[in-house]
Amino acid sequence: MRSTQEWLYRPRDVDLREGASLRAQLTVWLVAWLRTPTRYLGVTPDTRLTWSPHVDQAWKKTAQRVGILVPLLNRRSDLSIRNRVLPYKQLIHHMMDCASPSWRSTALTHVRRLQVLQSKCLRLAAVPPWYVSSRNIHKELDVPLFAAHIRALTASFDSKLADVGNPLFRKLGRCLR
Q: Which of 1-5, 72-76, 154-158 has the lowest mean pLDDT?
């Protein structure tokens, strides 16, 4: 057993041949990269590419930031609703969608967790009655639902890949769909 583990975790030179498909090249590169859980450019991937550790980390950081901003966002604040939503848009929203084009294949469960957190924050800022739905709050405050926002960011990212000089990255958007 120990020799098998040593063989699995031993670093190897990756041979990316010209004839290999892009998906095979990316798979070989990702398997070599994901052997150890590390943060890379703010993203914490896992070996099965479920993006669960990254979403958990984004959720924790966002919840912590919302907790700090509660005095500004609560119903006793003297700020207008528009000014209560502004800290969300400026400080919190960008923490949630960090590196979103890379984790576009995450499970719907993880996206829903972040959507619930977004809705809680907007409900805290807008202070609507209990019977107003989250969709109506989003519509009134002109904030897209989290999944729609991620789709828009990913589409924008994919459209910019066509201008990249590296042929591996140029085809990346088509492989990940």
A: 1-5
Query: Alpha-carbon torsion 39, 43, 48, 52, what sign?
Result: positive
How big is the chain, counted in residues? 177
Helix, strand, or coil (residue 40): strand
Phi, psi of 40 (to 5 degrees): -130, 115
Query: Cβ(137)–Cβ(127) under 8 Å?
Result: no
Going from the C-alpha of 70 to that of each of 88, 126, 134, 146, the distances in angstroms are 11, 12, 19, 21
Tokens of 32: 């070599």
Residue 19 one-letter amino acid: G
Reported as a single tens digit per residue, the pLDDT across 104-151 is 778 888 889 989 999 999 999 898 999 999 999 999 999 999 888 888
Question: Which amino acid is present at 161?
Answer: L
The span from the CA of 124 to the CA of 74, in Å, is: 6
Short-list 150, 141, 76, CA closest to 112: 150
> In the numeric block, which tokens belong to residue 40?
């890379």
pLDDT in tens, 23-34: 666 666 666 655
143 sits in which H/E element: none
pTM above 0.90, yes or no: no
Q: What is the DSSP letter of 79?
A: S
Q: What CA–CA distances, in Å, run from 58 to 7, 52, 134?
A: 33, 10, 21
